[in-house]
């Protein structure tokens, strides 16, 4: 089944940060819901203290899960971002650019929500992403 998606992006500059206001999917195809993914390997936090590296690592893991399910980043219609509130300044300084570059390189244009949270599952986790894909 081929996806037919219309992107809703009324504000200039959103594409630079990998954010879109929304999209209309008309295929009614198969939906993949991915749980939140963090920068962990074998239950150990990676890149402790480096939010940009953690964000990219978590997104790479999300990409692995997408491929395992037979999906691509271009199939993602919703990408939710969770960032530890204590690291918001660091995220805006360096993490957001890293995420925007990554999403641009993989061709992901998805609506979503960005939430600052008090904590994540492990004290060394700084960010988490969850994705929904349709094809």
TrEMBL record:
InterPro entries named among the record's database cross-references: RutC-like_sf (IPR035959), YjgF/YER057c/UK114 (IPR006175)
Organism domain of life: Bacteria
Pfam family name, one: Ribonuc_L-PSP
UniProt-recorded name of the protein: Enamine deaminase RidA, house cleaning of reactive enamine intermediates, YjgF/YER057c/UK114 family
Organism of provenance: Microbacterium caowuchunii
């Amino acid at each position: 089944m081929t996806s037919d998606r219309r992107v809703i992006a009324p504000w200039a500059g959103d594409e630079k940060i990998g954010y879109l206001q929304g999209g209309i999917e008309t295929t009614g195809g198969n939906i993949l819901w991915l749980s939140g993914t963090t920068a962990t390997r074998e239950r150990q936090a990676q890149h402790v203290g480096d939010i940009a590296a953690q964000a990219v690592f978590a997104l790479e893991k999300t990409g692995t899960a997408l491929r395992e399910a037979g999906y691509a980043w271009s199939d993602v219609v919703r990408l939710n971002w969770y960032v530890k509130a204590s690291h918001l300044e660091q995220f805006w300084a360096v993490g957001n650019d890293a995420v925007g570059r990554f999403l641009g390189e993989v061709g992901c244009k998805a609506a979503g929500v960005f939430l600052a949270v008090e904590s994540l599952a492990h004290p060394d986790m700084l960010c988490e992403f969850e994705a929904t894909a349709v094809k």
